[in-house]
Design goal:
This protein has about 100 residues and is mainly alpha-helical. It is about 70% helix and about 0% strand. The radius of gyration is 16 Å and the shape is globular.
Length: about 100
């Protein structure tokens, strides 16, 4: 985990501790689904470091939870993530303009 900034290292440690404290009951299905998703992403994102994939998934999970808590439906959440992806890959598409009108650069 040496590639993690200290703040993120603390966040992951907190998540791990909370999982251990809650016991294994009820989490086994989530753990298996998580391992399956991680395995799939290792295959479909060759060349992307696992720590980077983990950091992105963690941030995405937080964002999904926040949007769900705010009442967003799955379709709106998926659309938001798709538009964010288009914004981030816009330079690689050759138009140089963020698709979502972002100003993150």
């Amino acid at each position: 985990m040496s590639d993690l900034p200290e703040a993120e290292r603390a966040q992951f440690a907190g998540v791990s501790q909370a999982i251990r404290a809650s016991g294994a009951g009820g989490l086994e299905g989530s753990r298996m689904a998580g391992q399956g998703l991680a395995d799939k992403l290792r295959v479909v994102l060759p060349g992307v470091e696992e720590v980077t994939i983990g950091r992105v998934l963690h941030k995405a999970g937080i964002e999904i939870a926040m949007r769900t808590h705010a009442g967003a439906c799955p379709e709106d959440i998926a659309a938001g993530f798709t538009m964010a992806a288009l914004d981030l890959v816009a330079p690689a598409l050759g138009d140089g303009q963020p698709q979502g009108g972002g100003t993150s650069r």
